[in-house]
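Reproducibility note. Readers wishing to regenerate the assembly model reported in the main text can use the exact inputs given here. Chain order matters: entities are listed in the order in which they were concatenated for prediction.
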Amino acid sequence: MANKIINNGLSAFILVIWMGINIFLFVWFYLFYDLGDQFFYTRHLLGSALAWARAPAAVLNFNCMLVLLPVCRNLLSLIRGSFMCCGRTIRKQLDKNLSFHKLVAYMIALMTAVHVIAHLLNVEWYNNSRLGVYDKLSTALSDLEDTENTTYLNPIRKTDIDPQQIPTYLVFTTIAGLTGVIITLALILIITSSMEVIRRSYFEVFWYTHHLFIIFFAGLVFHGAGRIVRSQQTTDPPHNFTFCKDRTDDWGRIPECPIPQFAGGFPQTWMWVIAPMVLYLCERLLRFIRYMQTVTYRKIVMRPSKVLELQLVKSGFKMEVGQYVFLNCPAISQLEWHPFTMTSAPEEDFLSVHIRSAGDWTDKLIDIMQKLPEGAQGPKMGVDGPFGTASEDVFDYEVSMLVGAGIGVTPFASILKSIWYKFKDSNPKLRTRKIYFYWLCRETHAFEWFADLLQVLEKEMEERGMDHFLTYKLYLTGWDQSTANHVKVWVDDDTDVVTGLKQKTHYGRPIWDKEFEQVRKENPTSVVGTFLCGPQVLGKVLEKKCAKYSDVDPRKTKFYFNKENF
Amino acid sequence: MGKIEWAMWANEQALASGFILLTGGIVGVAGQFRGWQFAAYAVAAGVFVCLLEYPRSKRSKGTSMARPGQYCFTVCVKAFGPLTRNYYVRAFLHAAVCVPGGFMLATVLGCVCLGIASLIYLGAAIHGEQWVPILPHKEVRKPMESMKNPPQNPPPRPPLEMRRKRVDDLEGAAYDNPIPVADE
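Running the prediction on these inputs yields the following structure tokens for the assembly.
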């Protein structure tokens, strides 16, 4: 429970604050338009739809300001860097940037819906008043025109066309209406193309469509410029609506009731969004500068099962374990940046990524690299990063249990290498004395490069006589009878048939009770950190086991669960 | 990731358009707007588009992601055969359905969205895509664990690890003898 509060408390707190501001803005502006005297006549024409349109608009301003911030990844890195002194929990929040981006986007979608519906009603009511469908006051207010000594309230000025088409005409001929339609369309396209299924499977569609945000923000800035929501202005002598509202015929004739004057509100949206827009522009500029910096290839290796290893050198590049970079290869696409977890350790003087053939972009990259002559430099590559919080927690525990599932094994490449370097150099920052590494995999084909890496580590450790340092267990969860039979035949062999490693692959899922029992027996007095990079279901299981096998006695074994979001 | 299947996006867009058309229609009817008959049409059209678009198509490659509870919709939509399978039909159907929406403001947004969906569908159709129902795949019965079954893989059989290295050429791998055979 305490662990949970430590892990999620701050995010919950941030969400509560965000939601609180949203609710405050909504209620504040709702009451402002629903109770304000200057909107008495406007409300007479529109009813509560006025407040229902304006309150979401205020929330939209706030959220449109926020939505750009979480995607400024360099800005986040900067903040993360300046928070070095503070706890990891604060820095970890910055890794949830995309969840927050999505949350804000959902709020924008919801508020847009309310705003649009309310304005549909507003336009219809305006049209009705203008055509004299309602009471005398409504008609009188709508008839006010822009002349020397009057200003209009009802934006519908053209009445000599088919009454049914007047609202459409209004929307497509005013700044507010036209920009509104355009940015709503842009928003809808952005949302439909960022659904999970599109984003995960057809990244290009998602990526290119998301750039409609330029149109969205351009339209948003000018949306308020039409000043279409109008309020009553103070005049001299004052026009008292409680007295005058039933005396429309006397307006301008008796001194108590001069003709009421109206004016549109000052557009505010641009003030909300201009700062994030500038920040985002800087972000894109920085990305461009990063892209221009030279990156040289140290080594290009084709691993089995179509995995490409790139070792790159970039001057001034510093990384930490578990971080990722964005790569851009202009030979394939000028605009696309793709994220890859780094598999090199900070102790190494280069950065490496393992790229698995998984789509158009990666396929093309592998194709280009395969056609290169031996020892040649690859095509120009832009590197942006590193990003993400380092997973340095691993070094703080005497004993670490690392659990990687499927693709989740990638960040552990960097961690294992780094631990090994630190261990070799007897780095004082490293407290780890023993590592248990569990690798759960449906099929190992795709991750043979990782088995290669383990093999290298294994050999090195053996040479130094420290093979007790790392215990790893491989679990092949997808297997059939023929594999099992095959294993039976080769059971006496020195290395494993699947991976070629000294440790034998296990078949099926690990029995966690047994594993935890074993770790506890081997390390009776240690503090054990359990790290998972894998699915949530497994996280829950491990969290429970950690609690179950931790001893109340402070001198005995304790397990701490950490779920890493890489 | 693989080749872009435009129909997947078209489907999301069309489903969203259906909802927008439906919402616009409800607002129009409930508010008794001028020309609310068009709004009533939009309600019907929105519901129709949603029902038609709810069942997602099977992806040509990779895991298909069915929407929750889409099975019975899939069966209904599948019943229309080529009419629902062909994306040209869908493109023109949506283009036709969206037109009356343009006659009143409340349904204009839905109309334009559906028009865009229709265009994406047209693109999908030109790329040769078509709607394939996601049906629960039948249980492939595994051969019982007994000695009665004949060998599935004819000899000579190389060790498994030699076969494994050549996943891209299964045919060749099965018959490849890793040990050079010399006549003595």
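We highlight two features of this model. The longest strand of chain A covers residues 296-303. Residues 2-35 of chain A form the longest helix (34 residues).
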